[in-house]
Each structure stands twice: as C-alpha cells, then as structure tokens.
Amino acid sequence: MTKQTISELLEESGSDTISYRGRVVKALVRIPVRDGSVVRVKRESVNSPRLQAVKISVNKGAVDINGYREPTISLWSHTSPEEIEFIVRGKEASVLEIWNAWSMGGVDTSWIGNSGIVTKASAKGQLLQCSDGIGQATFSDLVATIEVLN
Q1: Of the candidates 13, 12, 24, 14, the residue with the CA atom closest to the CA atom of residue 116
Q2: What predicted TM-score, i.e. pTM, was given to this entire model?
Q3: pLDDT tens for each residue of 15-55
Q4: Is 122 part of any domain?
Q5: What domain count does the chain have?
Q6: Which of 132, 138, 133, 129 lies closest to 146, judged by CA?
Q7: Most buried of 18, 54, 60, 67 (most Cβ within 10 A)?
C-alpha cells in the first residue's frame, strides 16, 4: 500500500481538516472578520527552494490594500513586503480564507501532494506553518502570522 499524501487524505475525509502524524492539518484556514477589520500579515520565514505565497480571500467582500481592492490576494515571498496590513471591505464580509501556494515551473500551485497548514494560536493571532506539496510534509516551507487588529 502506498502512503497517501495530505491532499489525498483531505479529499478522502471530505473535510478541510485532518489529523496527520499527530498534528491537526488544514487545507484552508478560516478567520472571522467584518467590514472594516484591519488585518496584519507577517511572513516569518521561508525555507524552500520554491517561491512561496500566502493566499487570502474574503467571502462576500474584498481585501483593500491602499485603495486597491481584490477578492483574493497573493503575497509572494519574492515580491511582497515581509509585513503588510489591509482592510476588509464588504458589508456582508465575515470570513478570511487563507491557504498556501508555491511556484512549480512558474505555475501557481496549491492543494496537491503534501500541502497543508498547521496553525498555532499566539498572542499575535495565528501562526501558520505551511508545507508545500513537494516531497515530505515539513510545515516550514512558509511560516506567517495573521493578526486581526480590530
């Protein structure tokens, strides 16, 4: 029997959260927000030869960075600032959805292989420890903190 990848286990479970080697692993992290919430994202570290990204989406709304509004943003390790703040816009906005992505030959890739996120609550919000889908799950390919300030 071949060992299943995290993405296969997630798909089989019908959930976006599984237990994997004693850890709770998520395909997607959901954080409650509201219209006007200020959110800070800080990239703590990148430990991968591949370019890494934090992807953020707002349900029923948009991410507003200096007046530029998009429903989904990508904070790439090689092009975005180490720390960024944005405002959630949308009267019905209630949830941020966050996942990790990486570049494979220039292609934006998510949710395959051993990709997943282990979260830890901290004084500064949630620490996201991300494993890209290549090779063994490491949960150190990209580490970031997400904090809702208000």
Answers
A1: 24
A2: 0.93
A3: 999 999 999 999 999 999 999 999 999 999 999 999 999 99
A4: yes
A5: 1
A6: 129
A7: 54
